[in-house]
Amino acid sequence: MKIFFCILFVTLISSLPINQTCAGKSLQDVSYVVSIHFQKFDNQYDHQCLGAIIQEQIILTAAHCFYSCQNPKKFRLIINKNKKMNSSYYQEVATIVLHENFYPLQGNDIALVKLAVPMVLDGKFLKKLNYNHSESIEENVQGYAIGRNRSNVLKPNGSSNKSLEAMDNVYFKLIPLRIIDYNRCRQRKFVHLTRNELCTLAYETSGPCDGDSGGPLVNEYLNVQWGLLSYSRSMCKPHRIYVFTRLQPFVEWINKTMGEMLT
């Protein structure tokens, strides 16, 4: 389990290229994805995890992204509503809540992040992802993980290590995955797998990479979230297994916790 530094912030990037499509959808349709960064000891920022907007003020991600640090004062959100950098602005993080029963490789790898100020979701450049659904997720059903192709490093004062235009090149990729039966996955030595997790196989392309943790697993239409990336034995490789926290068992926890956070 990777140990995370304690100084982090969250970057929301909603300007995505539209030249990649899937099931009739463009990557503009994943404008609910957020990128979580941390500040190293040299004050440089590196991408760490992904997450998804599920409400104007709430981001859903993996608990292990904050396992070593849960101080909201160490986080902030940068919103880029379109490809023009002068539209970007910061938001502070108010609260971070990890599932009370989370422990690395023992399930319950889920967390919620509350922003100090709600985002304005326009349904195009910024929108929320549906996590509360009744879709059947059976063996061999295909879904898509959303991975990150490139990250940009930002300094605390908001200036970039790269040119401002480099932000236009930040985009995500769709990773086709197939659901694997729980017992088959356990037989492949994923002995920590719980019933509250989804086992998937990267069968066409390389799988999710280091830094994609917390990112959503969505249906073929990219509009329903089935899970969020928790762990794997080997990252960025094809024909490997990737484990996601299954969201259906946690809908009640999400709703209850989100309600308490917004009160």
Automatic annotation (TrEMBL):
<keyword id="KW-0732">Signal</keyword>
<dbReference type="InterPro" id="IPR033116">
    <property type="entry name" value="TRYPSIN_SER"/>
</dbReference>
<dbReference type="InterPro" id="IPR051333">
    <property type="entry name" value="CLIP_Serine_Protease"/>
</dbReference>
<dbReference type="InterPro" id="IPR018114">
    <property type="entry name" value="TRYPSIN_HIS"/>
</dbReference>
<keyword id="KW-0720">Serine protease</keyword>
<keyword id="KW-0378">Hydrolase</keyword>
<protein>
    <recommendedName>
        <fullName>Peptidase S1 domain-containing protein</fullName>
    </recommendedName>
</protein>
<feature type="domain" description="Peptidase S1">
    <location>
        <begin position="21"/>
        <end position="259"/>
    </location>
</feature>
<dbReference type="InterPro" id="IPR001254">
    <property type="entry name" value="Trypsin_dom"/>
</dbReference>
<dbReference type="Pfam" id="PF00089">
    <property type="entry name" value="Trypsin"/>
</dbReference>
<keyword id="KW-0645">Protease</keyword>
<dbReference type="GO" id="GO:0006508">
    <property type="term" value="P:proteolysis"/>
</dbReference>
<dbReference type="GO" id="GO:0004252">
    <property type="term" value="F:serine-type endopeptidase activity"/>
</dbReference>
<dbReference type="InterPro" id="IPR001314">
    <property type="entry name" value="Peptidase_S1A"/>
</dbReference>
<feature type="signal peptide">
    <location>
        <begin position="1"/>
        <end position="15"/>
    </location>
</feature>
<dbReference type="InterPro" id="IPR009003">
    <property type="entry name" value="Peptidase_S1_PA"/>
</dbReference>
<keyword id="KW-1015">Disulfide bond</keyword>
<dbReference type="InterPro" id="IPR043504">
    <property type="entry name" value="Peptidase_S1_PA_chymotrypsin"/>
</dbReference>
